[in-house]
Write a structure and sequence with these properties.
Layout lengths: L10 E5 L7 H13 L3 E4 L14 H12 L4 E6 L10 H4 L8 E4 L4 H9 L4 E3 L11 H12 L4 E5 L6 E11 H6 L13 E7 L3 H13 L8 E8 L20 H9 L6 E2 L13 E3 L2 E6 L3 E5 L2
Parallel strand pairs: 1-2, 1-3, 3-4, 4-5, 7-8, 8-9, 9-10
Antiparallel strand pairs: 5-11, 6-13, 7-12, 12-13
Helix pairs in contact: 7-8
Length: 302
């Protein structure tokens, strides 16, 4: 199900389910959102510091629910990620009983998984903490997605042959997906297209996480896999502070291909989304068409 798209003059909420924003970090994002013709409602804890987090677990849960249950709020963007949304999800889950756009990425994968499992579409996108350094495309695709104007995203990538598949996109940050194995928000991918991205991980950790998802049957029945950014990755070498060079021996793409090629489903790389400035917004839980040629690919929505 698609939540209603936004119109000029609508109110968008900013929740903080993990880390907090400072007023200085918020300044650019506020100006950008207001330039879209939207009103803003900030949850009470957005600027509240509780060590790394935006308040205790109850305060961060209420940060989301106060906006989710407010009929004037037509969409919610999570202020920033980090870690902490998982603390709130079990209290939030029972109340995900209506449609409203939720936007974010990384740690917000917990919420996006929960929402798409309820049959409601969400938006994987940049967040206010990153607005100032985001590309024009990252910000414009988020605005277009909210207003129902996003039709397609094209990018350059190398493929062995042409092809096309259709299905809802689910997934998000690989580490967060891995951390939800065996929980009510474990990723379900049957007849769907999986999107994966990650940041600041050891190469062998990627292998371990993919093995965990494989053994749990997460990839079973998936139509294909789209890989976004895998950035700031590390290896067991002196370059990353280890006393000796003991590299894993494969790049992250080689790890993915080695572990997943037996699934015999399309694997498309280089999608512009993840922990990078060009983190373009796209719909999750909405029927999508993924097509590709030898030098490019396109994700589109009718």
């Amino acid at each position: 199900m698609l939540p209603p798209f936004l119109n000029t003059g609508d109110t968008i909420g900013i929740a903080a389910t993990a880390r907090y924003l400072t007023s200085e970090q918020w300044k650019f994002a506020k100006q950008e959102i207001e330039s879209w013709g939207l009103k803003i409602l900030l949850a009470e804890n957005v600027f509240q510091s509780h060590a790394q987090l935006a308040g205790n677990e109850a305060e961060r849960t209420n940060s989301f629910l106060s906006l989710w249950n407010n009929p004037e709020v037509k969409a919610i963007i999570i202020a920033r990620g980090g870690y902490g949304t998982v603390h709130t999800i079990d209290s939030i889950l029972p109340q995900l009983d209506h449609r409203k756009w939720v936007c974010g990425y990384s740690d917000v994968t917990v919420l996006l998984n929960a929402i798409t499992k309820k049959g409601v579409a969400g938006i994987h996108s940049t967040m206010p903490i990153s607005f100032e350094h985001a590309t024009h495309e990252a910000l414009s695709t988020l605005r277009q997605a909210l207003f129902g104007e996003l039709k397609n995203i094209s990018w350059e990538t190398k493929n062995a042959q042409d092809g096309c598949i259709e299905g809802e996109i689910v997934g998000g940050n690989l580490s967060v997906i891995y951390s939800q194995l065996g929980s009510p928000t474990q990723l379900e991918s049957k007849d769907k297209i999986i999107f994966l991205e990650d940041v600041d991980e050891m190469l062998y950790h990627l292998d371990r996480m993919l093995m965990g998802l494989l053994r749990a049957g997460v990839f079973q029945g998936a139509k294909g896999i789209v890989f976004g950014g895998f950035t700031q990755l590390k290896d067991n070498t002196t370059e990353f502070g280890f006393s000796t060079d003991n590299p894993w021996g494969k790049s992250w793409k080689e790890v993915a291909i080695h572990r997943l090629q037996h699934l015999k489903i399309p694997m498309i790389f280089d999608f512009p989304a993840g922990h990078m400035e060009d983190n373009r917004a796209f719909y999750m839980g909405r029927k999508s068409s993924l097509s590709w040629g030898k030098d490019n690919a396109q994700l589109s929505w009718s």
